[in-house]
Amino acid sequence: MTTLTVYKEEYCISTDKAKLDVDSIHEFLSTKAYWCLNIPKNKVRTSIEHSLCFGVYLHERQIGFARIISDFSTIAYLGDVYILENYRGNGLSKWLMEVIMNYPDLQELRRWILLTGDAHELYRKFGWTDLADPSVWMELHHKNIYSQ
């Protein structure tokens, strides 16, 4: 898998897992991310180990994150996308999406999927649409699994 590090002014996006601040990622996901509140740190760590991860940094401080679950041939799931609140409004989420969508090992996939409750307009800028035929999709969703 291609390790990628790109810079824009004082910001950096990298797929180098050694740079990831797992404590920071866990803090955000477990306390601020509506999709996985209370997620245990070991679950975050395991999800990182088994995903292609994109860290967003200001100098050496991690301020954002996204991860991809993929077979790198036909499908990719985009999840856990965030920029810390104090750094929003600087175009970082758009830049993160540009980097992800142009990542060399994710080209020519048949399908990309994601779930979002509030960032539809961001993803639409990159060609994402609502499901063309929701009747063919199914899910098994344990919504409050980390709160039990």
UniProtKB/TrEMBL annotation:
Cite the GO molecular-function annotations of the record.
acyltransferase activity, transferring groups other than amino-acyl groups
Q: What is the protein's species of origin?
A: Sinomicrobium pectinilyticum
Q: Which UniProt keywords apply?
A: Transferase
Q: Say if the entry is tagged with keyword Repeat.
A: no
Keyword Hydrolase attributed: no
Superkingdom classification of source: Bacteria
Q: What is this protein called?
A: N-acetyltransferase
Which ranges carry the N-acetyltransferase domain? 13-143
Q: Pfam families of this UniProt entry?
A: Acetyltransf_1
InterPro entries (UniProt xref): Acetyltransferase_Butenolide, Acyl_CoA_acyltransferase, GNAT_dom
